[in-house]
Structures are given as C-alpha cells and as structure tokens.
C-alpha cells in the first residue's frame, strides 16, 4: 500500500526544508567570515603599531647601551700601522713599519714612547702583530725577520729576547700570550699554530699540523726590498 500524502502538502516539502536549512548555515558562515575579514585591516594596523613601538624602544635601548665616543690615540708619525694591543693599565701598543710604539694616557691625551725599533737590541724589520702579558712584557711577531721577540720592561726601555727564530717559524703574522706566559704564534707559511712554553727553557708544542719544519722555510721579501 502506498504512503499517502496529506492533502494540501507537497511531497517536496521536506527536501525544500533541508535545502533552506543548509542555505541558512552557508549565509551565516559567509556573514561571520565577512565580519572577520572586515576586521583584518584594523588588526593589521594594531599589530604594526605594536611592532613599531617595540622596535623603536629596542633601538633606543641599544643606542644607549652601545653608544661610542671616538677619540684618536695616535695619528701623526705612524707608517703602515698593522697591529694594536692594550694592557691592563690602558696603555696602547702599536706595531707599525720598523717599530713598536707605546701610547701612555696622560691628561686626556697620550704620551708616545718607543718599545722596539730597527736598532739594537731588537733589529725589527716589519712587526705584524703584538701582544702584551699581564706583567707588561711585549711580544712582537716580525714577519720579515721571521721571528717572535719579547720585550721586557727595564726602567724606561725594554730588553730583547727571542721567543721563536726563523729556524722555528716562517713569516709569523699573529701572536698571543695567556695568563701563564705561554706564547701562541700563527706560523703562517708553515700552516700551523705553535705554543712556546717558558719552563726553564722554551719548549715547542705544535697544534696543527704535526709535521716537521722544512730546513729552509720560505721567506717573503722585506718591504725594504720592495719598490716604493
């Protein structure tokens, strides 16, 4: 027996009702999305404003924290300055062509004195880098004499001693000293770093590589031999 449909009611009514309910949900979803999208420009403006405030505050803090005031330690009389070091008392040591000078703070400026030069007892040629120990000893890496020298304060001058000669290093272009007085040398043309430890005598320890030195290490020409 067939299901009968009440008089005055279409058999399509339930389908139409379901369709209307789905359409209503779609309309409400579209309205909700529209409101959210309309609010995006305002949210973006607020976000950019907050980010801008944070960045400006950070920049101001960094400027206040890392601001620098520039002053000149030495300018006149220098020739090809290539190395600089500072000791615990604020004295500045400068390696330049043919000499190492010391700039001592004095009444808002600096007083210049010579640590080592081409004359005796150091016989420098072209000191490349310098380091200063806690006791005031100055260590000088001289590229063109292939040596590292030590200057020990003695009154108003310095006495010279050899830390590493051209029989050990070739064109040393870096030197450092630790709190125990151990000296570290960038042995450039031998492609290694050497530690010289003062313990009754200078004992050598190689960091890299551990190959033996050539009997005659290569040498670079002195700037005195180069055309001007």
Provide a brief overview of the structure.
With 228 residues, the chain is α+β, with helices and mostly antiparallel strands. The chain has one helix at 13-66; strands at 83-86, 92-96, 99-106, 109-116, 127-132, 138-142, 147-154, 157-164, 172-177, 183-187, 192-199, 201-208.
Q: How is the largest sheet built, in terms of strand order?
A: 1-2-3-4
Mean pLDDT: 76
Please compute the radius of gyration using only Cα atoms. Answer: 39 Å
Straight-line N-to-C gap: 120 Å
Which spans have pLDDT < 50 for at least 5 consecutive residues?
210-217
Portion in beta strands: 25-35%
Helix residue percentage? 10-25%
- Summing up helix and strand content along with how strands pair, one would put the structural category as alpha+beta
Globally, the shape reads: elongated
Oligomer: single chain
β-strand number? 12
Helices and strands in order:
Blueprint: H1 13-66, E1 83-86, E2 92-96, E3 99-106, E4 109-116, E5 127-132, E6 138-142, E7 147-154, E8 157-164, E9 172-177, E10 183-187, E11 192-199, E12 201-208
Antiparallel strand pairs: 1-2, 2-3, 3-4, 5-6, 6-7, 7-8, 9-10, 10-11, 11-12
